[in-house]
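USER:
Working in pairs, take the chain set out below, taking as long as you need, and write a paragraph about the fold.
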Amino acid sequence: MADTDSGLFGPESVTWQLHSDPIMWIAGIRALYLQALHPRTVRGVTQNSDFRNDAWGRLLRTARFVSATSYGTTTAAEKAGARVRSIHRRLKATDPATGERYGVDEPELLLWVHCAEIDSYLRLARRSGLPVDDAAADRYVAEQRSAARLVGLDPADVPATTAELDAYLHRMAPALACGPEAREVDDFLRHPPVPAPLVPARALLWSRVAGLAYDALPRYAHALYGRPAPAPAAVDRRLTVAGNLLRLVPSTVRWQLPPKHILKAVARIGPAARPDPYGSVRRGTAILDGPGGDQRSDGGDSGPWPKPG
């Protein structure tokens, strides 16, 4: 594979731009809250791992997978998918009410995980101020069928538009419940175990981040978890503030965090491949075009990236 291989999506995709924005960190936590409300899915997690002691590892592995499939070469993305499918094929879970044993790679479960993630990434990007129009949102949902294929889903069975995604989530709502496993995930996300010196930081920083991710859940999820749902407009304001604050951290600093897939992609393809959530694709079709695009061409840095010639 050539060094310039742009992977599954490439710099002109919505995925390439959207996944570079730091609001994805909060969106990932929101996705975990939502995924945990599917009883069969969350049992597959809690029964096959020491979730409480390995939750940070699971979060990091998920982040690496999303990063590798978004910015890695085609070969790297395919290898990441093969690794996930191989692990899932070996794992089983048990329904405590019926004794049924089932595989965690059932398409129903994989589809729920996928849709909860994509809904979270897209909604929080839009609610936090990224100017993603309806056409770009549909493109993003359609692009993510490639990621769904990597985990073992048939792309034809995966929502291809925001309307299809919304319809799927609406159909799934009656099947959701907040059982003991979801309570375990909720408790971890609200009070993750940390070394004693980090307890003040957990109270000051993490509780606010996780609280915002929880508040951004749909109303039916709040009802299941049993805590009052805040006003959506108030949550939107907080998401916008959080997004703008996170975007003040220069991307050249953010992208230094492991596994550095964005930096590797830019080094592999060239400067024109830098993700630019406030810019547009090179052929002139706007992806995330909005006010201040040129001034915020580094996704919110205090100064713009030089425009490639």
Strands lie at 92-94, 101-103.
